[in-house]
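go over this record:
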Amino acid sequence: MPRILTIASQKGGVGKTTTALNLGYTLARLGHRILLVDAEPQGGMAIASNLRKRTDKGLVQLICGDVTSSDVVAEAKNCSLSVIGSGVLEPEDAEFIESAARSGELGDTIARIAVPFDYVLLDAPAGIGGIVSALLTASDGVILMMRCRTLLLKSLPIFLKLVRQIRSEKNLRLSLEGALVTMWDPRNPLEKDLFEELTATVPDALFFRTVIPYDDRFEEASIKAVPMYLLPDSRDASRPYLELAMEIKERELLRGIGEADDEQVDGLF
């Protein structure tokens, strides 16, 4: 059975798309069959992966029945990674995605195309709108992206309440995989203080041990539309995503043998 994970955040600019691409590529390097789903109407993943070189159609056309999954799921070279775009070509297409989220068609489509894969990573839009709710309803888990910024931390409880609501009312299997700190700059004293304050108030297990540091090369990788690993001399910089992939696998194994308790998630709410 595929494991469907939503990569989400209350605020934008925290590296959701970068994490989806680099984590997906890393899991594929480890031998898993991976599907990245661009569920952001603005099409960030399509840009980050250069998907539009292959096709500009995606979820919109698939839900409408204009194409089949084989027409719009693009396979990457030299690894078991595939990507499907949002298919948003016109402003009204964005409204269609919202409508499909409310009706359940978006979640049903994701569940259908997920079948051949081991992991499906959903690149969610920022916030707590209808699309995000639909993605969480279709998911097994959520990776909560965050930066150590005061406004972001203050808005965090709203998103966490949404996760809890979806789990209690619509999707009992939904779990909080962990909170991932990104764009981390340990030289910034404000970030350091906020991080220490946050980690002191919630259980350590709710945060991934892995932290994604700030690195200008991520911007370079974005410009070239490749995962960090494929940039020359950047494999060390891509290592945190290998550590994240291994930590996700570790947490899955612990849950499988009963050593990880989902009730820990309640400590964040």
Q: What stands out?
A: The chain has one domain: 3-253. The mean pLDDT is 87. The longest strand covers residues 175-184.
